[in-house]
Design a protein that fits this description.
CATH superfamily of the largest domain: Type I PLP-dependent aspartate aminotransferase-like (Major domain)
Oligomer: single chain
CATH architecture of the largest domain: 3-Layer(aba) Sandwich
Distance between the termini: 17 Å
Order of helices and strands: HHEEEHHHEHEHHEHEHEEEHHEEHEEEH
Radius of gyration: 22 Å
Structural class: alpha/beta
Largest sheet: 7 strands, mixed
CATH topology of the largest domain: Aspartate Aminotransferase, domain 2
Helix content: 25-40%
Number of strands: 15
CATH class of the largest domain: Alpha Beta
């Protein structure tokens, strides 16, 4: 295998030299994986053993530029010293107490997230249910909707909200849904970005409308300007909840704490995960207004959600993003990346869409999976959520030089395929 841009780690680096000497080569590790791990993800493309900043190293010592960040999770890159410090300090002080009790980190993180969600309506009350993932956050949201006394839900074509039965019921992909039907709920799917069609099916039997500000798994698709505000108005008219899924788009990924912030709306339910813990499992379902009080004692629960270590990780991430001005940095870096790719004028690139550092490179042919494989062979980690779309979601700390290096390499990757 040839890793051109990143190259192999120099042999003088003690950590990687030790890993290369003690770890089996990737074929042996992948063979062991095949015999030990359920085949729900297919064979792994690489076995990674180390990460630092915006780079990863595989079991054979090859270095890669991480432009996917663990699917928009590692917002601050790999092995961030302050996140590690916060996790270590909390774990060495208090690791777990169950949710019969509270901890200061849990309370502080809930307060911060509530402030983010109600930024456009500060007088509105917010309450948080902590989880370990985005799927779990959406399960909590689903249960909140059931407490309204209504059972109908409206979701969007192209949506993705998770793989558990409840979250899957809100996910539109038939390939994911059909093997597990019947799914819970009475869910109607409408075209994403089409407020007129939503208005036709929305009535006072609907408990909630769930929407992503940008559909990441559908290929980084944005709705028309004003769409979220229109959905807010429509839901208020019939007394339905507006549920905004910020699992992939929130916590700075698109240049603000919430990608929905620019619309000026306040959701009744907002769900977070991914970038909140920088790799430590943590998610949150934030409910506001009357919805904040629909779940009471015994109506929902979790063993690990909101544990003090996860909360410490979340607080560290928020503090670093704030301290280092990363929200503004993400907006600038995202425009640089999109403009650089557009300026290539490559015939196989149709356009670039998305916001901040969540970008979809739309191709003129359905070759995205092959391009993603070629990129991996060349030392770049990206993925293809759709046959004609490359998704880029690098760490928010990525330097301009690394973005430029990928842009310069992209034409050759497209030409090779």
């Amino acid at each position: 295998m040839s890793i051109t841009p990143g190259g192999a780690e120099p042999q003088s680096t003690p950590a990687l030299t030790q890993v290369s000497q003690t770890q089996p080569a990737q074929p042996q590790l992948i063979q062991r994986y095949d015999h030990a791990v359920m085949n729900t993800f297919g064979p792994p493309k690489r076995v990674f053993v180390r990460g630092e900043g915006v780079h990863l190293w595989d079991a054979d010592g090859n270095r890669y530029l991480d432009l996917l960040a663990g699917l928009a999770v590692n917002s601050l890159g790999h092995a961030h010293p302050q996140v590690i410090g916060a996790i270590s300090a909390q774990l060495s002080t208090l690791g777990h107490v169950s949710n019969f009790f509270a901890t200061p980190t849990q309370i502080a993180l809930a307060e911060r997230l509530g402030t983010f969600v109600t930024a456009h309506d500060p007088a509105r009350e917010a309450r948080v249910f902590f989880t370990n993932s985005g799927t779990e956050a959406n399960e909590a949201g689903f249960k909140i909707t059931r407490r309204t006394g209504r059972t109908r839900l409206i979701a969007m074509d192209g949506s993705f909200h998770g793989r558990s039965l409840g979250a899957l019921a809100l996910t539109s992909n038939p390939a994911y849904r059909q093997p597990f039907e019947p799914l819970p709920g009475e869910v109607t799917f409408v075209p994403y970005g089409d407020a007129a069609t939503l208005a036709e099916v929305l009535d006072d039997t609907v408990a909630a409308v769930i929407v992503e500000p940008i559909q990441g798994e559908n290929g980084v698709v944005e709705p028309p300007s004003g769409y979220l505000a229109a959905v807010r108005d429509l839901t208020e008219t019939v007394g339905a909840l507006l549920w905004i899924d910020e699992v992939q788009t929130g916590i700075g990924r698109c240049g603000d704490w919430l990608a929905s912030a620019e619309s000026g709306v306040t959701g009744d339910i907002v769900t977070f995960a991914k970038g909140l813990g920088n790799g430590f499992p943590v998610g949150a379902c934030v409910a506001t207004g009357a919805a904040a009080f629909l779940l009471g004692p015994g109506s929902h629960g979790t063993t690990f959600g909101g544990n003090p270590v996860a909360a410490a990780a979340g607080l560290a991430v928020l503090g670093i993003i704030e301290r280092d001005g990363l929200l503004a940095r993400v907006r600038v870096a995202g425009e640089r990346l999109a403009a650089g790719i557009t300026a290539l004028g490559h015939p196989r690139i149709a356009h670039v869409r998305g916001r901040g550092l969540l970008r979809g490179v739309v191709l003129t042919d359905p070759i995205a999976p092959a391009v993603a494989d070629a990129a991996l062979a060349a030392g770049f980690v990206i993925n293809a959520p759709r046959p004609d779309v490359l998704r880029l979601a690098p760490p928010l700390i990525i330097p301009d030089a690394e973005l430029d290096r990928f842009v310069a390499a992209l034409p050759a990757l497209l030409d090779d395929v």
